[in-house]
Task: inverse folding
């Protein structure tokens, strides 16, 4: 031997030549490297650069929590859904069956409690076996844990392409693993390492860690694993595919019995326990995890809305990809505003509204409920499912209740709203009252023509559109029935839902722009464009377009419910909220929403007066036709207010109504035109849920849906009396001018409308 040479490295060189000769350096090279590690770690000597290479390797391992299951829960803590990229539920070592701890040590590393992270005996044994033509590894459990931690850290950073699997490791990878294992043994106890390993190790694409594996393969907790079950799982980690007890039961049984042999050999079980376990048939009881909002136990579409709220919130990462990674791996607990006491009845009601959709067209039905004064979304339901086979024929991923972009991001999820029809009329009423005009003032609802040069009084945008039968492709303003072309109070015009009365009210305003201001104050916005544009500005509804006074644009039900919540709360507008708390895997609060409200968004007295008028809708107006199958009016036992709405084709219908403590938007109608030659015709002469309708109005189907649901929901929240409005906003009947009603004075100049308005609500009097 040459002077100054370390015999260990001379041996290693000789062994290296043998390995090269045998052509198995990929296996044995890393084993031989292991022989150098203890000497390098203990002596610090250097020979031929090998030890220097080892010393330059990192010696600290950052152990971060591996990917865990994120839970979305309701306000009472009941589950909604789980989200994960790796199904893993960490448990403490004392929550694992002793069987599984003994099994994994016996088969993977029986000297686990004796070595210091790298096992010299194991390396020599594996080297000898491989030189004889076998194939045996020498990684200790500590080394395996190190590898898993490194790979998990890479995945958590989105660097999946850098993950190195066992069969791909080179000598450098193995040396790094060994050095980190030695260092880790000085930082963590053996039990901590074993616990970490059993919580991180891969068993199956559906099961990461022992708890998830126990649940997936046997439907039991890890603490309850029997000896045969524990041995099966311990054998599985060597090759999760080859030893899968579901797909390869014979191979899995042989591997299980090999584990049992090792347990007997190393004194972990006695002969009888061994023989009984070996003679136990392989039996699995699969409990496949279901992740994602499509498998939510309740409120699929609310769940999806919550997910998009997180995905679009910079508080959870600088970009959408990083937020998605945090959600799918972070083990978060997301507590929402959903109230299961309301969600259950809401879902049952929308499911029954259209029945089986008569097999011809998938009528959409939806309910969304907001708590006034907080903005909390407490229920959100629609008569469809996200996946086939979930109970209804109507399958769609689109959320009927929300904006197309789910509030402020680029991820599509919402339908984008529907035409609200006459449920928009309270916006003009709000503008009227805000100018101090009383509800009992008479306006000229006989007037039907508002031509191109009609002298609207406006201080902002020009009024767009016209109603004038003398102009090509235009018509005079229409009501649904002929007897309503006459002078009437503004109040009657609202509760009977008369189009010409709404236009007469708009014409009687001191400033037409007050309608836009009212819509903005109520949070009205375009459902198709979403809540915000690319500059972060709210895309307001264009109330200068005449058709929009009667609901000709698309607005999401949640927007409508939240606007009416401003009336219910005496003028306080609150931004809709769905998430109260976001907790990390350690139980620390890292986010959530709080009520964001603006008091006096509209004047309190104005809100009270609007509610006072909308109460009449249900007692003597269009809402009086909210009836049950026997023709009896459905009434709540509490003070309530509402507005019906129907679009021009009778195929999108609404009731938006409220008590003091809950506001609900109820929708029934067309949500898709796919496969329909003429969806405009669907509102007339149709059968819905076994009943024929010559035409569909808001009170007919959306109305009972609202009423039946609110009968169950209203008692659970504040259902007291509404506050009375001041008398000056009620007033008495006012005389009309010589033209009948309150004709506007000439404006500063003629309007230059550019477009014909979208067909309006017909002025329903069901």
Result:
């Amino acid at each position: 031997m040459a002077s100054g040479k370390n015999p260990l490295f001379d041996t290693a060189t000789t062994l290296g030549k043998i390995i090269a000769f045998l052509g198995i350096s990929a296996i044995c090279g890393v084993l031989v490297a292991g022989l150098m590690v203890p000497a390098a770690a203990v002596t610090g000597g250097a020979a031929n650069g090998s030890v220097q290479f080892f010393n330059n390797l990192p010696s600290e391992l950052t152990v971060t929590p591996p990917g865990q299951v994120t839970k979305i829960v309701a306000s009472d803590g009941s589950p909604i859904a789980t989200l994960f990229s790796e199904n893993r539920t960490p448990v403490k070592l004392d929550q694992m069956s002793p069987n599984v701890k003994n099994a994994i040590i016996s088969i993977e590393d029986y000297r686990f409690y004796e070595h210091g992270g790298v096992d010299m005996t194991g390396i020599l044994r594996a080297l000898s076996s491989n030189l004889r033509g076998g194939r045996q590894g020498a990684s200790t459990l500590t080394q395996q844990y190190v590898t898993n931690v490194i790979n998990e850290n890479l995945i958590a950073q989105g660097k999946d392409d850098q993950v190195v699997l066992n069969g791909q490791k080179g000598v450098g990878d193995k040396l790094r693993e060994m050095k980190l294992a030695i260092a880790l043994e000085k930082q963590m106890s053996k039990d901590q390492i074993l616990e970490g390993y059993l919580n991180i190790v891969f068993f199956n694409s559906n099961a990461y860690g022992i708890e998830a594996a126990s649940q997936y393969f046997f439907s039991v907790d890890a603490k309850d694993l029997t000896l045969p079950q524990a041995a099966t799982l311990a054998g599985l980690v060597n090759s999760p595919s080859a030893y899968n007890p579901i797909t390869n039961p014979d191979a899995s049984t042989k591997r299980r019995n090999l584990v049992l042999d090792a347990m007997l050999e190393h004194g972990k079980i006695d002969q009888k326990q061994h023989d009984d376990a070996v003679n136990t048939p392989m039996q699995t009881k699969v409990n496949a995890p279901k992740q994602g909002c499509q498998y939510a136990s309740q409120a699929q579409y609310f769940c999806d809305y919550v997910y998009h709220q997180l995905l679009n919130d910079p508080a959870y990462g600088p970009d959408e990809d990083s937020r998605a990674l945090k959600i799918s791996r972070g083990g978060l607990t997301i507590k929402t505003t959903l109230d299961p006491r309301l969600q259950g009845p809401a879902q049952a009601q929308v499911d029954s509204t259209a029945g089986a959709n008569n097999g011809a067209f998938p009528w959409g039905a939806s309910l969304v409920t907001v708590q006034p004064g907080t903005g909390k979304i407490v229920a959100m339901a629609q008569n469809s499912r996200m996946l086939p086979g979930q109970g209804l024929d109507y399958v769609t991923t689109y959320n009927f209740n929300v904006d197309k972009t789910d509030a402020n991001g680029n991820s599509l999820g919402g339908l984008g709203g529907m035409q609200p029809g006459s449920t928009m009329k309270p916006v003009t009423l709000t503008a009227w009252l805000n100018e101090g005009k009383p509800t009992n003032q008479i306006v000229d609802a006989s007037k039907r023509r508002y031509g191109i040069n009609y002298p609207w009084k406006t201080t902002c945008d020009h009024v767009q559109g016209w109603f004038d039968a003398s102009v090509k492709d235009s018509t005079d303003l229409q009501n649904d029935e002929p007897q309503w072309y006459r002078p009437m109070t503004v109040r009657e015009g609202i509760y009977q839902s008369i189009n010409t009365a709404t236009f007469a009210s708009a014409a009687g305003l001191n400033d037409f722009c007050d309608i836009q201001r009212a819509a903005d104050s109520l949070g009205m916005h375009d459902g198709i464009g979403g809540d915000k544009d690319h500059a972060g500005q709210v895309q307001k509804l264009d109330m200068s377009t005449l058709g929009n006074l009667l609901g000709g644009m698309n607005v999401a039900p949640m927007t409508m419910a939240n606007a009416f919540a401003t009336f219910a709360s005496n003028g306080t507008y609150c931004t809709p909220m769905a998430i109260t708390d976001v907790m990390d895997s350690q139980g620390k609060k890292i986010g959530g929403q709080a009520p964001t409200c603006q008091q006096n968004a509209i004047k309190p007295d104005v809100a009270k007066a609007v509610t006072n008028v909308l109460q009449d809708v249900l007692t003597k107006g269009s809402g009086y036709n909210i009836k049950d199958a026997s023709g009896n009016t459905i009434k709540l036992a509490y003070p309530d207010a509402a507005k019906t709405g129907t679009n021009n084709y009778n195929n999108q219908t609404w009731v938006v109504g409220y008590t003091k403590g809950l506001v609900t938007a109820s929708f029934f109608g067309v949500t898709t035109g796919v496969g329909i030659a003429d969806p405009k015709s669907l509102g007339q002469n149709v059968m819905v849920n076994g009943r024929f309708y010559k035409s569909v109005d808001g009170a007919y189907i959306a109305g009972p849906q609202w009423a039946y649901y609110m009968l169950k929901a209203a008692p659970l929240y504040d259902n007291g009396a509404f506050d009375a409005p001041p008398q000056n906003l009620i007033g008495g009947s006012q005389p009309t001018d010589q033209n009948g009603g309150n004709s506007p004075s000439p404006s500063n100049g003629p309007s230059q409308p550019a477009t014909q308005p979208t067909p309006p609500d017909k002025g329903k009097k069901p």
In short: The CA atoms of residues 436 and 729 lie 7 Å apart.
